[in-house]
C-alpha cells in the first residue's frame, strides 16, 4: 500500500473551513493541554507530542516579557522561540521521551499503512513558529 499523505494546519483554519487538507485525512491534534473546544476540530489528540509543560511555560513567560517591552504578539512569540531555543529543545524532547518516541512511531506506521494525517495545533504558521512543523519534519525524515 502507498504511504499516506502528511499535512498540518491550525485549529482556526479547520473551524473556518480554510484548511487545505488531503481528502479523508485524520486530523491529529498534537496539543499537551487542549482547550475543551479543541476536540471538536480534531479526530484525536496525542498529548505526548505536545511540547513539554516546562518548555511551554518558559516560552510563555519570555513571550509575555517581550510583549510588555512592546513587541506585537507574533513578534514576541517568534523572538521567544529563539530565546528559549524552542526548536532544539522540542527535538531533544522527542528523542528523550519514551512516550513521544512511541507516539511518533505510531504515526509513522499509520502513514506507512496509507493513512493520511493532518497534524493540528493552535498556531498559524504563516505568522508564528510552531512545534508541529518540527514534528512534521521528523515524520517526513523517517521515510
UniProtKB/TrEMBL annotation:
Please report the name of this protein according to its UniProt entry.
DUF488 domain-containing protein
List residues of the DUF488 domain.
25-142
Pfam short name (any one): DUF488-N3a
The organism of origin for this protein: Natronococcus jeotgali DSM 18795
Q: Which InterPro entries match?
A: DUF488-N3a (IPR054495)
Amino acid at each position: 500500500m502507498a504511504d499516506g499523505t502528511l499535512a498540518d494546519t491550525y485549529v482556526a483554519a479547520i473551524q473556518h473551513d480554510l484548511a487545505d487538507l488531503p481528502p479523508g485525512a485524520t486530523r491529529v491534534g498534537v496539543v499537551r493541554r487542549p482547550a475543551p473546544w479543541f476536540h471538536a476540530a480534531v479526530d484525536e489528540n496525542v498529548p505526548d507530542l505536545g511540547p513539554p509543560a516546562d518548555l511551554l511555560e518558559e516560552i510563555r513567560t519570555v513571550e509575555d516579557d517581550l510583549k510588555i517591552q512592546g513587541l506585537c504578539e507574533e513578534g514576541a512569540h517568534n523572538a521567544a522561540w529563539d530565546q528559549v531555543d524552542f526548536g532544539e529543545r522540542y527535538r531533544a524532547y522527542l528523542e528523550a521521551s519514551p512516550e513521544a518516541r512511541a507516539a511518533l512511531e505510531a504515526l509513522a506506521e499509520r502513514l506507512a499503512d496509507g493513512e493520511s494525517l493532518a497534524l493540528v495545533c493552535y498556531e498559524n504558521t504563516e505568522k508564528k513558529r510552531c512545534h508541529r512543523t518540527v514534528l512534521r519534519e521528523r515524520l517526513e525524515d523517517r521515510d
